[in-house]
Amino acid sequence: MVEPEIERTSAVTTFLKFVHLGAIALWSGGLIALPFLFWQRRALESDLDLERLHRVTRLVYVELTSPAAFVAIGSGTALIFLQATFAEWFSLKMVLVGIMSMLHVVAGLVLMQLFLPKGKFNYLSYVALMGAYVVVIAAILWIVLAKPQIDSNQIAANLFEPGGLGRWVRQFFGEIRMPTP
Ligand code: HEM
Question: How much distance in Å is there from the Cα of 141 to the middle of ligand 1?
Answer without folding.
Answer: 8
